Amino acid sequence: MPPINFNDIEVLLPLIILVIWACLLLLVDLFIPKKHKWLTALLAAFGLALTLGFTLSQLGSESNGFCATGKPSICMVVLDGFSVLVNALLLLTGLLGVALAYGYLKRMGIERGEYYTLMLFSISGMMLMAQASDLIIVFLALELLSLPLYVLSAFARSNSDSQEAGLKYFLLGAFSSGFILYGIALVYGATGSTSLSQIFEIASVGTSSLLLTIGAALILVGLGFKVAAVPFHMWTPDVYQGAPTPVTAFMTAGAKIAGFAALLRVFGSAFPNLSEDITPILWALSAATMIVGNLLAIAQTNIKRMLAYSSIAHTGYILMAFVPYGNPEVAPVSIAAGLFYLFAYTITNFGAWGVVIALEQKESKGLQISDYAGLRRKYPVLAGAMTVFMFSLIGFPPTLGMVGKFYLFRAVLSGGYTGLAIIGVVTSLVSAFYYLRVVVNMYMFAGEPKTDNEFWLRFTIAGAALVTVVFSLVPQGLFAWASRAVLKLF
Amino acid sequence: MLLEYLAIAVLIVLATVVALIAIGLGGLFGPKKKTVNKSMPYESGMMPIGPGTRRMPVRYYLIGVLFILFDIEVVFFLPWAIVFRQLGWFGLIEMVVFVAILLVGYVYAWKKGALEWE
Amino acid sequence: MIPLSWYLILSAALFSIGLFGVMARRNAIAILLGIELMFNAVNINLVAFWRYLDPTIMNGQVFAIIVFAVAAAEVAVGLALVISVYRNRKTVVVDDLDLLKW
Q: Is C31 exposed, middle or buried (0-12, 13-18, 19+ CB in 10 A)?
């Protein structure tokens, strides 16, 4: 009889609290009258903050959970610096997501309590992903984070765009899950284990097997779909454009973080030996994603679609950090730079989407880039914040985006991937064209933009703008945290 | 080694051939009289009512989906039941947690009126 | 005993049929069926590997059970989305869902 191990519970404590909270919220929401859904939002935010507190209390502790009896090295979940950092980032994403959604849902007439519950469930999936150390958990976490996102994308029930986005996201998401699953099955077949550390051990003694390589490649394809890397990006613009805007904001940040966490966990801990085969593929994926994402973004007139392509392009930049993942000398710095960039992107991204939400009107009006004309004259603060976000997405100083790109390119160059760094710099220059078009529209042209006064939305935008600028002046602490977090992984 | 399965292969071939012969002979020599009653769709001897491809109310899908969701959880109960004694209290607590989560979903569906037919 | 490779070939064939279904069919429900085929192909793989590699470690079987449950959850969400789209657009053919550029 296996004893009840309290260490296991401790490892997953924040996650367990969040899931219990989400379940209770689902029930409590049934009894909250329609007029008082702000209470659900508040409770969801409180749950996230509580979980964030517990997550931060785990800082510095390292442990494994749910291990095989008698074999303490084969475990289902792991708690380390990386998981704490990523979990904290995910919970921050959730809090920002709630803040952006609250006023928007009311304004669009789609306010229902399930929104927040689904978001909590999705975040628990993402957190589980960050802690996974077994392929079964990776798959489970992937589904737990995806299923609520499919529903959230289709959350505006009377809006055809949103319905369409939900269905498309679901079909392609499930399709990519099939690939990941098949890849996992092949890896399991090649090594006889689903534990990431076991796979690494078995793979490092034998000669490289074709089955293992194919399995890893299939997993890469599936994860490529999830993080929207070219050529698996076809669904991204449609889904990001059609989904309710706060959901899009949440997806672009949260799903990306979780996807990269999975990429790092699976490839970093199980397949470092395959880096000879995988690194060139990652190189090509990253280059293609940067080029295609940035070039297609130029042609867009709808701001949601433009930011969707921008999100694809940023996937490319972050993928850059993963290219040298098999080289233990370069990888820690590179991955730390990637994590920092993820943080920078998350904050900037939420700010930019916040401005989009502020200007969006019913029936998908106010979403053209030309609708931003005249913003400076009518709402100078909003225009200023948007300028900061656009600069940060390009990588102009003094913003987080610039610091992130600096760390990233430096790491890539020190890894010896000069070509990739050049592609990154050139595409960043190209991207300035379409980001600055928004700024030009706001400052140079006349127009009559409309926005509502929503406290939490403004608070988020202002906060994001402030963090984007201030942290760019003192980024060392954060980068040091990221470096410490990934050090143990290699 | 594979020869062990030869009998099954022979059986499959034989069954197919016999069935084909029976149907073929019947079609070749049997009388063919088409009447209205004969060409009606077969509904266990009852008179068919309405067209065959009748649309189901959308409620039916809702109930069906809920059924799948709660039904599939049995695959977790069965292995658990087999090793129930070895797992002891640990297994029992795990199962209580599992059922509690299912119950949350059930209560939600109930309160939302998904189980009402009207 | 039947060699492992037979199961793997069966599974690969099933996976490919599912893949073809997803690519070629235009009806959302048919695409869903294709995806289910892919999932079940994986299940065959998992159980076959479990049986042939080390039957004392239950990973493969447990994974197959989890895949069942996840597939059911996915179908539930998928069908709900299809019904919801049908209510709005009166179609489940993905080619007709062209409000957003596909």
A: buried
Q: What is the pTM of this model?
A: 0.91
- Interface probe for C, chosen from A171, A194, A240 (most Cβ of C below 10 Å), is A171
What are the residue ranges spanned by the domains of chain A?
298-490
Q: Which domain holds residue B59?
A: 2-111
Which CATH number goes with the domain that contains B77?
1.20.58.1610
ipTM: 0.95
C66: chain A residues, CB-CB within 8 Å = 136, 139-140
Residue B118 belongs to a domain: no
Alpha carbon of A51: minimum distance to chain B alpha carbons (Å): 19
- Cβ contacts of B63 within 8 Å, gap of 6 or more: B114, B115
Position B1 pLDDT exceeds 70: no
Is residue B117 in a domain?
Answer: no
Quote the CA–CA distance of A387 and A352 in Å, as a whole number: 9
- Total number of domains constituting chain B: 1
Most C CBs within 10 Å, among B59, B68, B98, to test the C interface: B68
Q: Is-contact A350 A357, C-beta < 8 A?
A: no
Token pair recorded at residue A388: 């900061």
**Does B69 contact chain C (CB < 8 Å)?**
yes
For chain C, the chains sharing at least 3 beta-carbon pairs closer than 8 angstroms are A, B
Distance to chain B for C3, nearest Cα, Å: 10
Residue of A nearest to B112 (CA): A30
Report how far residue B91's alpha carbon sits from residue B93's, in angstroms, rounded to the nearest whole number.
Answer: 5
Q: Is C83 on the interface with A (CB under 8 A)?
A: no
Yes or no, beta carbons of B86 and A1 under 8 Å apart: yes
Q: Which of A158, A168, A174 sits opposite C35 (nearest CB)?
A: A174
In a domain, B100, yes or no: yes
Question: Is it true that domain C4-96 has CATH number 1.20.1580.10?
Answer: no
Q: Give C14→chain A minimum CA distance, Å.
A: 11
Neighbours of C74 (CB within 10 A): 22
Residue to substitute from A23, A76, A140, A147, interface B, most B β-carbons within 10 A = A23
Q: Using one digit for the tens of pLDDT, what is the confidence trace for A319-358?
A: 999 998 888 888 889 999 999 999 999 999 999 999 999 9
Of the candidates A1, A3, A27, the beta carbon closest to that of B104 is on A27
CB contact under 8 A, C1 and B1: yes
**Mean pLDDT, consecutive 10-residue segments, chain A of 490 residues?**
75 94 94 90 95 92 83 87 94 94 90 93 96 94 95 91 92 94 94 90 80 93 92 92 94 93 91 88 94 93 94 94 87 92 94 93 85 89 94 91 93 91 94 93 87 87 94 90 81
Output the DSSP codes for chain B: -GGGGHHHHHHHHHHHHHHHHHHHHHHHHS-----TTTTSPPSTTSPP-S-TTPPPPHHHHHHHHHHHHHHTTHHHHHHHHHTHHHHHHHHHHHHHHHHHHHHHHHHHHHHTTTT---
